[in-house]
Amino acid sequence: MAKAIAGIELALWDIKGKALGVPVYSLFGGPTRDRQLIYWSHCVSTRAKQYGNILWHNGDDWVVGAPPVRTLEDVTALGEEVRNKGFHALKTNITFPGDPASTFGMQQDVENIDSNTTPAVLRYVPEYIGALKAGAGPDVQIALDINFNCTPLAARQICQTLEDLEMMWVEIDMYDAEALADVRRQTTVPITSGENLYTVRDYLPFFQHRSMDNVMVDICWQGFSRSRDVALLAESYELNVAPHNYYSHLASMHAVHLCATVPNVRIMEIDIDDVPWKDDLTGGPVEIADGHLELPTKPGWGVDLNEDLARQKVWEKGRGPGFSTGRN
Predict the structure, then answer these.
(1) CA atoms lying within 13 Å on the CB side of residue 323
(2) Measured between alpha carbons, how far is residue 300 from residues 26, 207, 315 in Å?
(3) Tell me: the pLDDT tens digits for 283-304?
(4) Stretch among 103-112, 179-188, 301-310 having the lowest mean pLDDT
(5) Residue 231 belongs to what domain range?
(6) Residue 13 and residue 33: Cα distance in Å, rounded?
(7) Measured between alpha carbons, how far is 273 from 84 in angstroms, rounded to an integer?
(8) What CATH number should be reported for the domain holding residue 220?
(9) Which of its termini does the chain have fewer beta carbons within 10 Å around, N or C?
(10) Distance between CA 259 and CA 266 in Å, rounded?
């Protein structure tokens, strides 16, 4: 229900902005900035799975056409690509390159861990992040997303293996605010969470328990007004927000407009590897320069949806990636 309300509300803001000839952020007193720092999300994860026939179907047009990642050497090369393209940060999942590839929590060729971990995984995690850092260099920040795949114990163990690697954060999803707070207290790695929460009521116990260092907010789930409510409540707890955004350019516009209207933004997520028709869906590519997304100046969200193309690309069951759960 919250997602349905959010979709309607986001559409109405676009209508109102275009009717008045102003960007949505102007309706909220913005902008507070002209561009927003972004990070390359699902780095390694997409390319490793693309050729492993786990999340992508051979021969269809969901394949991004990027070089495959099958070894840790390929991981290092992708880290270097991120740096060379001007990005200052990236986010990945615990990915085991190969053919097929797999991700921690997706049991294709990883031992069934039942939300726990193993000595082998704990040895591998810093090796994997180290391979990314070797290519990305010391100034590109790296975040790791382990989703809902871990118990508090396993999450803490993974974080502790990364304490010498200057992580931007480890992203952990949990519905128990106290359990996540326990993890945060027992590691020096910053913790980010919240993408699956709705409204200030869901977030409040996490803020009260100091469960996270950065607050993930999904505008497509929350709607714009509610997302701002969460962001401003987070500010009152001296917390930064980081919009959750791995969707289309329309969703990226939702997120960057939010960033333009609140003061406490850490960084914004965006997927770089994606379907080849992503730009066509909203009338062209978004403007990215020096690892920043430029703030749009056109009315409404600043893009127009190509509805004919959207109808051609309606999602079908079993098609396309489901990174968070390992299910299509």
Answers:
(1) 23
(2) 9, 32, 26
(3) 999 999 999 999 999 999 999 9
(4) 103-112
(5) 2-312
(6) 20
(7) 15
(8) 3.20.20.120
(9) N
(10) 9
Residue-wise pLDDT tens digits, 237-287: 999 999 999 999 999 999 999 999 999 999 999 999 988 889 999 999 999
The residue-averaged pLDDT of 220-248 equals: 96
Cα 286 to Cα 26, 27, 195, 307, distances in angstroms: 19, 22, 23, 18
Q: Is residue 325 part of a domain?
A: no
How far is the C-alpha of 222 from the C-alpha of 215, rounded, in Å?
A: 13
Pairing of strands 102-103, 95-96: antiparallel
Q: Give the span between the Cα atoms of 239 and 210, in whole angstroms.
A: 9
What gap in Å lies between CA 292 and CA 94, rounded to an integer? 25
- Kindly state whether residue 328 falls inside one of the protein's structural domains: no
pLDDT category of residue 324 using cuts at 50, 70 and 90: very low
55: tokens are 């999340």
d(CA 245, CA 254): 9
| Identity of the residue numbered 140 | V
The beta strand positions in the chain, using DSSP E, are 35-41, 89-92, 95-96, 102-103, 141-145, 169-171, 191-193, 214-217, 240-243, 268-271, 288-289, 292-294
- In-domain check, residue 210: yes
Which has more confidence, 81 or 67? 81
- Counting the structural domains of the chain, the total is 1
CB neighbour list of residue 136: distance below 8 Å, 6 or more residues apart: 79, 80, 82, 83, 90, 142
C-alpha dihedral sign at 144, 187, 265, 142:
negative
Binning the chain into helix, strand and coil, the percentages to the nearest 5 are 40, 15, 45
92 within domain boundaries:
yes
Give the C-alpha separation, 13 to 165, whole Å: 42
Six token digits for residue 151: 């118990």
The model carries a pTM of 0.90
